[in-house]
Design brief:
single chain, alpha+beta, two-stranded antiparallel sheet, 5 helices
């Protein structure tokens, strides 16, 4: 069984509204210019059911298909060697909603591609951030 998919119920007017809020970048990303969730990922409300949804997930499901259980959406346009903002929330690729820039992957695959603290955690390394409870509890550093 696959997770809930909006693809069967999405109103074409919702897709048109979403696309009007996108700007094409030189990298081919469709940059969402609407609201975000505070972590940089675009969010919108669909006509029905009236719930907040991640825009990249909506377009993935509408254009590619359902997201299989246990998988999450990865932005394949994100290159941690070229994109290393001060804060992860400033990464412009989080606002990319182009379906061909998205892939359904496992959490581990997504974390390994991330290039920041989550990559270090996925590789079993200390992430380097002071006060990281994950590293402290995993025994990678002494408790402060």
């Amino acid at each position: 069984m696959t997770s809930f998919s909006v693809a069967d119920r999405i109103d074409p007017s919702d897709i048109q509204r979403i696309l009007r809020r996108c700007v094409l970048t030189s990298e081919g990303c469709w940059r969402w210019t609407g609201a975000d969730n505070g972590s940089g990922y675009g969010v919108t409300f669909l006509s029905a059911p009236r719930r907040r949804r991640y825009v990249h997930r909506v377009l993935f499901q509408a254009c590619i298909g359902p997201i299989p259980d246990g998988l999450e959406i990865h932005h394949i346009c994100h290159d941690p060697d070229r994109c290393s903002p001060q804060k992860a929330t400033d990464c412009p690729h989080r606002r990319c909603v182009n379906p061909i820039h998205l892939a359904a992957v496992t959490r581990r695959e997504n974390n390994l591609a991330g290039g920041t603290w989550n990559r270090a955690h996925a590789e079993g390394r200390d992430c380097g951030f002071d006060g990281c409870k994950t590293c402290t509890y995993a025994g990678r550093r002494a408790a402060s």
